[in-house]
Write a structure and sequence with these properties.
The chain is of the alpha/beta class and 79 residues long. Helices cover 46% and strands 18% of the residues. The longest helix has 16 residues.
């Protein structure tokens, strides 16, 4: 599965968990994450950081603020 490329836009557990398994099988996974801009987002992420790190293992991370970075997201998918 080394030639399979996946761009993950999911932010809850189902998509990150599935793509974590696929990364473990050898797929190249790019995880698109939101910047910490919302009120309380930093505290929530700090509380859940261990779970987020486990789900992001083996993935490339790209921070995009959608819809402002829509063209950058399209470029990721087009690669």
């Amino acid at each position: 599965m080394d030639d399979v490329r996946i761009v993950e836009f999911g932010c809850f557990y189902a998509a990150p968990l599935l793509t974590r398994f696929l990364a473990g099988f050898g797929c190249h996974v790019t995880s698109v994450i939101r910047p910490l801009t919302a009120r309380g987002a930093r505290a929530e992420r700090a509380r859940m950081e261990g779970a987020f790190d486990a789900l992001r293992a083996g993935k490339e991370r790209v921070e995009l603020a959608l819809p402002a970075d829509l063209e950058a997201a399209r470029a990721l998918v087009a690669e």
